[in-house]
Amino acid sequence: MLPAAAFYIVFFALPTLCLFVLSFWTADGFQLIPGFTLANYEKIFTSPLYRALMIRTIGVAFVTTAIVVPIAFAVSFLMRFVFERRGQFILQMVLLSLFSGYLVRIYAWRTILGKQGLLNSTLQWLGVIREPLDFLIYSNFAVVVTLSGLLLPLAVLPLYSAMLNIGRDDIEAARDLGAGRLHVLRTVLLPMAMPGVRTAFAFSFLLSAGDFVTPSLVGGAQSLLIGNIISDQFRGIGSNWPLGAALAFVTMAVVLSVYFVIMRLVRWVTTW
Questions:
Q1: HSE of 207, CA atoms in CB hemisphere, 13 A
Q2: Which one of 95, 96, 173, 242 has the lowest number of neighbouring Cβ atoms within 10 Å?
């Protein structure tokens, strides 16, 4: 217990505290000026740019999560109850993509969705389209699809682990009592798999909301998220570390608030 607490304090609590203190400082060029001011937070809450980026970030994260979690839930269910004997093998195949590296997978999706990429070329070869579909790349659509592909394996892992704790007898007992498929899903599968659902939702929602690499590579200038602005504040010419720190804390507060509200709604639906 003590080593875990020490690890948490050294590698999470202290850096977070330092970043929080930094958010009240100011910057003059490359020089940090210690002090206490709410100017950074005032700038964030009064700027239409930051507000628009925050809304876009929450929207992209929510849509990505709405795609990833149901698919991961369905895949986990099939692995557990349909392909039960091959479940572990399928899980290894799903997780195999994680060994290819984050950037490699982003560029793979960029190759698929590009204007001359695999998807457009295939559709043109089949005669479905005459000209490449521009919205497939450098758009919010490309960001959501890429993030969904990147985060799906991470969502499958906790959901499959939760499914292993659900017995086939639990489902059969509900069906013997006259429960339909949707009723079994809402009253048996979802409540018993809720720890895995929460973890999968957290992986998908929080990681997609904080991502800045994917929007940079497949989203373009019109699909940047708040993470891109935060990243820019810590590097390059015109950087502003205190403003970046304040943006990071505001983003964390907003994203966590939305996450807890949605999870409360999910819990209410499953107990209703």
A1: 22
A2: 96
